[in-house]
Amino acid sequence: MRGNRWMMGVVATLCLGLWVGFSQAETKTGYVDLQKIFQGYNRAKENEKKFKQEVEAQQKEINKLQDEIKKEQEDFDKKKDILKAEEKQKREERLRDMLQDFSGRWKEVNQKLDQRREELEKECLDEIIKATREYGKKHGYTLILDARVVVYGPEGADLSEEILKVLNK
């Protein structure tokens, strides 16, 4: 009985040792800092520049609408004391309509810009992930993680710079 326990202990220890050795030999793990890659990725920089131009164009349009409303409000304020009640009411309604249109337009523009930013970011993120997968396959990695989930990793396991080089070729 005692011999069987000892033998089982030896076998378990050998199996554990083989499993640990096998898993260490088979596993090549790295990690990437997606934020760092995103910030250094030339395409992401170009997309950000393009997005800022789109924002500026939309801002000009919004400013134009604001100026029209402001001009209408100023004109109304100057003439409201001399306008007939019917005309005054029409002008007030027109101002309200302009403000509602402006509010709707503002909301629409913000939604479109948010959606556009998400599209541009997703496009770059998809490219980063694809490049990371291809790099991992080419260099025999079993696993490449996002640095946000890595509590500890040796400096040599950070593949961010390598992935950035691949992307910016």
Describe the structure.
Strands 1-2 form a two-stranded parallel ribbon. It is rod-shaped, with a radius of gyration of 32 Å. It is mainly α and 169 residues long. It contains 5 helices and 2 strands. Residues 6-23 have low confidence and may be disordered.
Continuous helix count: 5
What is the typical, i.e. mean, pLDDT? Answer: 85
Which strand order does the major sheet show? 1-2
Instruction: Supply the number of structural domains.
Output: 1
CATH third-level topology: Protein Binding, DinI Protein, Chain A
Main sheet makeup? 2 strands, parallel
Task: Note the beta-strand portion.
Answer: under 5%
Supply the helix-strand structural class.
mainly alpha
For the record, give the distance between the C-alpha atoms at the N and C termini, rounded to a whole number: 67 Å
Beta strand count = 2
Radius of gyration: 32 Å
Query: In percent, how helical is the residue content?
Result: over 70%
| Overall spatial form | rod-shaped
**What is the H/E string?**
HEHHHEH
| CATH arch. level architecture | 2-Layer Sandwich
Layout of secondary structure:
Layout: H1 2-26, E1 29-32, H2 34-40, H3 42-79, H4 85-138, E2 143-146, H5 160-167
Parallel strand pairs: 1-2
Helix pairs in contact: 2-5, 3-4, 4-5
What key phrases describe this protein's structure?
78% helix; mainly alpha; 5 helices; Protein Binding, DinI Protein, Chain A; two-stranded parallel sheet; 2 strands; 169 residues
Summarize the structure.
A two-stranded parallel ribbon has the order 1-2. The chain is 78% helix and 5% strand.
